[in-house]
């Protein structure tokens, strides 16, 4: 079987989490890299030894040796890249969030369906042992149901300005928090009601950077997010990767931990171990799954549906904005 040729569309920060796992994969290679910024293309080529580099997406998509693409552009540009790739017959691994609106996500999903290409969403927590263990502890009933998952994050947020642009990145309540919406759906099932109240601490940006959102699920479980990316650049007020607990009628889970989940029950603390892994492991497993799906035609574990439903929660929260209200989904 010939090797799967992968093209990168967007060669910024997150593409560096993916690219090494194509290079090291025995059944794949990087066929071409594209970015609108020529310097980013050159840096990619120097770092990963990719012969083909271009600033033209059309040129990349016209290549026969590109079987599949990884879309790593700013979120607002995901739809153009995914739809063009699908029409060119290329399978797609698309970074999260899928797009800024459900309508755009649906266009992307339809284009991939029509072209008969795979669409995988890069919700990398699905390959992380700690997140999988958190879900398992909840499903095992160790702390009872329904639960309230509280998520707190506070810092200056993402490194490049587009993340704070309303149209391109949308700020933390879509960009970072979409991981939580996806994980909550994966763990609890469908969302049914949302309330939110957002703010803008940074006066220079157009996206909401701070606020609170409460998502109720049909199961009775709840996700409460109290997040900010609106602070000056001194780092985070809590752990850099946020602070989480899950409260249930029989106890609580606290994480992230140091290789263990702390589960507090009436009789004291129980440390639940999981096999320690790193971000590189998650991204490696995710890429291996994508390559396997392209090879076999198997549907990806995390696809358009996950992208659409997580975006639905995000879009609803952003639309509520600073006019607090309750929206039934
Ligand atoms: N999975 C994760 O945990 C995770 C982490 C960070 C970012 N992301 C997502 O990955 C995507 C990219 O984020 P990033 O951190 O790499 O951003 P970045 O700003 O570091 O890189 C984006 C790159 O895209 C290029 N670009 C801009 N417009 C383009 C276009 N139209 N076509 C091709 N290239 C274009 C830019 O020149 C830049 O090199 C976003 O959707 C972001 O939300 C996911």
Report on this model:
- This protein is an alpha/beta fold and 329 residues long.
- The protein has 2 domains: 4-123 and 280-301, Rossmann fold (3-Layer(aba) Sandwich), CATH 3.40.50.720; 126-277 and 312-328, Dihydrodipicolinate Reductase, domain 2.
- It is 32% helix and 26% strand.
- It has 9 helices and 15 strands.
- The chain has helices at residues 15-23, 38-48, 57-61, 78-87, 102-115, 129-139, 178-188, 279-296, 304-320, and strands at residues 4-9, 28-34, 53-54, 68-71, 91-95, 119-122, 148-154, 191-199, 210-217, 222-228, 243-248, 251-255, 260-265, 268-273, 325-328.
- A 9-stranded mixed β-sheet has the order 14-13-12-11-7-10-9-8-15, with helices on one face. A 6-stranded parallel β-sheet has the order 3-2-1-4-5-6, sandwiched between helices.
- The longest helix is centred in the C-terminal third of the chain and has 18 residues, at 279-296.
- It starts with a strand and ends with a strand.
- The mean pLDDT is 96.
- The site of nicotinamide-adenine-dinucleotide (NAD) has 24 residues, from loops.
